[in-house]
Sequence to fold (304 residues):
Amino acid sequence: MALIDLANPTRFLALVERVLPWLIAATVLAFAIGLRGAYLAPDDYQQGATVKIMYIHVPNAWLCTFVWGVMSLAALGTLVWRHPLADVAAKCAAPLGAAFTFLALVTGSLWGRPMWGTYWVWDARLTSVLVLFLMYLGLIALWRTIDDPARAGRAAAILTLVGAVNLPVIKFSVDWWNTLHQPASVFRMDGPTIDPSLLVPLFVMAVAFTLLFVTLHLAAMRNEILRRRVRTLLLTQAERA
Amino acid sequence: MDLGPHAGFIITAYLMAIAVVGLLIAWVVCDYVAQKRALADLDRRGITRRSAEPRPSGVKEPA
Fold:
């Protein structure tokens, strides 16, 4: 099925109905394996048991930038290809991205207090992620401000693409500036620096959270399509009256 | 399992994750129920999409 075939909302809804049960099952299974792995994984030789926070902090930190990346692609879909579902995808990803960013900030803070001695520092990594969180909230507010979904979609797409400048800043902040946050330890040119006994459960949890995002995103897109149907029917009825 | 002296931070982090993920799931499910209910209500009032309206007699269904 080509991407353009999904431009038909009815066809898209039928596809969502088919894949959603499988996605829910895969998400539950991935979380079961990941949480079991996190439970059984050994403590870190320096951090002790607090390393268990890593299994929720790191996947959420990955997802907060990944979701903005998805929204940036959707923004291109809205502005360049004018795909009818692109702004639906962007709108539905924003609250999910905000939630994952919130979790990354909160769990990072809870990890930082025992390890760094503080909940928060205004260093480059933490501040740039906080800016990302505020941009998510701004996008959600923008969607709610403009009544017409098409106009809101174009405005939000421009803001999303402007905000994408923050993604490389977040990624390389630990290399460009002196930060309290540790540098990358998984995606490195010379390979991960984490022991496999910790890395494998972390990878499974990352897959689980990504599956959760895909599942919730598709379900939220289905809801948004139904909401637009209700809106169109009400507008048509008002015009006839 | 011994979570050491920082057990409170670890447990709070996991509880926060459960709460936020639970809220996201509840939001999606409640929104779906609300939209389905709104569409059913419109359908009951005879307000339907043209593609959902019954075809006039003599017009065949597309293959």
Chain A has a mean pLDDT of 91. Residues 61-183 of chain A form one domain. Helices of chain A lie at 9-40, 54-81, 86-116, 124-145, 149-163, 166-176, 196-240.
